[in-house]
């Protein structure tokens, strides 16, 4: 019996709406120092919030894309985030830094994290995979 021809190794599925929003956000990044532009799009209850990295001449003050996206969502009232897409030019795609993993865990312990590069390669994780045994609000209930 013959099945469908296998997809070529270079083939990637078309970008989802959330991925397109993260790609659009990547273009808004302010990254004159690292020249590493990052875009993020967070989904919560049908709404999407974009973020991008914003650097500063005082280097340590820069903020990652994931955190600007999460903070935009939280400022709009979202508290339970469902998914985030992070786009960079790194290939294979780079995954969120440790600080961002902690911030994602605060508002989306069950969330899906998709990292993508410009060629459409993706890696898909859960926040739990990226930050096992996270410090959570529950630890503050003494
Ligand atoms: N960056 C992000 O925006 N997200 C990450 O998860 C890793 C790093 C930014 C921070 C800085 O502006 C640039 O990428 C290089 O580190």
Walk me through the structure.
The protein has 142 residues and is α+β, with helices and mostly antiparallel strands. It has one domain: 3-Layer(aba) Sandwich (Cytidine Deaminase, domain 2). The chain is built from four helices and five strands. It has helices spanning 17-26, 65-75, 98-107, 127-130, and strands at 39-44, 47-52, 83-87, 112-116, 122-126. Strands 2-1-3-4-5 form a five-stranded mixed beta sheet. Strand 4 and strand 5 (122-126) form a beta hairpin. Helix 2 packs parallel to helix 3 (98-107). The radius of gyration is 16 Å and the shape is globular. Bound molecules: tetrahydrodeoxyuridine. Tetrahydrodeoxyuridine binds at residues 31, 34, 36, 38, 53, 55, 62, 64-66, 96-97, 100. Tetrahydrodeoxyuridine is lined by residues 31, 34, 36, 38, 53, 55, 62, 64-66, 96-97, 100.
Can you give the mean pLDDT? 94
Structural class: alpha+beta
Please identify, by name, the CATH architecture: 3-Layer(aba) Sandwich
Q: Strands across the major sheet, in which order?
A: 2-1-3-4-5
Topology record:
Elements: H1 17-26, E1 39-44, E2 47-52, H2 65-75, E3 83-87, H3 98-107, E4 112-116, E5 122-126, H4 127-130
Parallel strand pairs: 3-4
Antiparallel strand pairs: 1-2, 1-3, 4-5
The site of tetrahydrodeoxyuridine has 13 residues, from α2.
Question: Which labels suit this protein?
Answer:
142 residues, alpha+beta, Cytidine Deaminase, domain 2, 5-stranded mixed sheet, globular, binds tetrahydrodeoxyuridine
In brief:
This protein has 142 residues and is α+β, with helices and mostly antiparallel strands. Helix content is 25%, strand content 19%. It has one domain (17-135): Cytidine Deaminase, domain 2.
């Amino acid at each position: 019996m013959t099945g469908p021809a296998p997809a070529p190794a270079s083939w990637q599925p078309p970008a989802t709406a959330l991925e397109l929003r993260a790609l659009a956000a990547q273009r808004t990044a302010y990254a004159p120092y690292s020249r590493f532009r990052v875009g993020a799009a967070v989904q919560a209850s049908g709404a999407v919030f974009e973020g991008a990295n914003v650097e500063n001449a005082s280097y340590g003050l820069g903020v990652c894309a994931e955190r600007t996206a999460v903070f935009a969502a939280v400022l709009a009232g979202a508290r339970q985030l469902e998914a985030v897409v992070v786009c960079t030019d790194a290939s294979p795609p780079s995954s969120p830094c440790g600080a961002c993993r902690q911030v994602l865990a605060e508002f989306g312990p069950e969330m899906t994290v998709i990292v993508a590069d410009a060629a459409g390669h993706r890696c898909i994780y859960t926040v739990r995979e990226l930050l096992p045994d996270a410090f959570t609000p529950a630890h503050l209930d003494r």
